[in-house]
Amino acid sequence: MSIASRRRLISGKGLVPMDPQQNTPRSSPGERQPSPAPLWGDRLPANILRWLSIAARTSHLGVAAVLFGGLLLLVPFARLAPWHHLTIVTGAVLLTLEWQHDSRWPHRGKGLLALLHLGLCLLIHLAPALTVPLLWAILISGSVGSHMPRRFRHWSILQGWERQDNEPRPR
Length: 171
What we know:
Blueprint: H1 3-7, E1 10-11, E2 14-15, E3 18-19, E4 24-25, H2 46-72, H3 77-101, H4 109-126, H5 131-147, H6 150-153
Antiparallel strand pairs: 1-2, 3-4
């Protein structure tokens, strides 16, 4: 993001003052720090990112449901291979979009649960005898990660609980 476009960022009090040393918006001690830019550059517009995320999540749910059902019903894996690959691709797209939305995502509650979800998926390949229980654990971790309250989704293993603007500063 260029300096000029950063200067156009507007807060509730007007233009955000810039820190010339770091080329980032300066904030007073009580304000929430802006999320750092993602590793791959400027962010997509929020409305486009939201619709892409909805499309990716819907696609992932659809292809994962076919894979889940096929594995539960003991369909030969060779017939499920396309669904397996589509589940991996849509999951990777979903993770990328989440990271694009919030670069702190990997160390927040929602990111940690997504990494657990991914770990359980990989564990199926190491312990195929546990496929059915692991599938249920994957389903539950995905559902909980998507629907848990904001307070837990935004908790960070590095930064702790997210403060709201109206909360007093710790002394």
